Amino acid sequence: MNKTTKFIVSLLLVVLSCQLFSLARADVNCKAVILSPSTNTSYTDIMPLNFTAEWTKGNWTQWIMPRYFYFIDNGSKVSITTEPFPYIDFTDNNPAIEVINDTIDISNLSDGVHTLTLYTNGTVNEANLILYIVNFTLSTTYFQIGSPIPSPTPSQSSNVPSEIIFGLVVLVPVIIVLSVLLYRRHRKTPKTNQ
Known about the structure:
Blueprint: H1 3-25, E1 28-36, E2 42-43, E3 46-57, E4 61-72, E5 78-79, E6 88-89, E7 96-105, E8 112-126, E9 130-145, H2 162-188
Parallel strand pairs: 2-9
Antiparallel strand pairs: 1-3, 3-7, 4-5, 4-6, 4-8, 8-9
């Protein structure tokens, strides 16, 4: 093989590898559904973290080894423990759904509303040729620590029913108008001597 032929073959292999690598980036995807924490529940000390992760692949991906993490209020990334270490073989299932159950220590957080963001990355095998890393921000939810903030109660400044107030608002101007008319009529009436 001469130098020109070797160069052309090497160039074709590089182009083919780059094409496969660029296809690989779009060849797998993940979405999550957070089951807990719930925005309707208030937590203290320990909070359950339960979610499903649905992995789908395109034409090339053979398998993936995902890892899951969470952030609270844009804090540091915390690894979620999964047993056994997840390995998804797409020859068995596509899509593949994983159910993740963990707990989070929230005893150091202040009372109030906080955000929880799920994140995943994983090593993907592409057509048994290339290994690469994918990263996905999956979902963000809100949770409450401590007692919920009570909703404001209407002020009890008056015990008078609204129907009476409405009646007075309508009746008072009518009484004033009638009084003025009667007064004017009374002044126009001539006085008779007895």
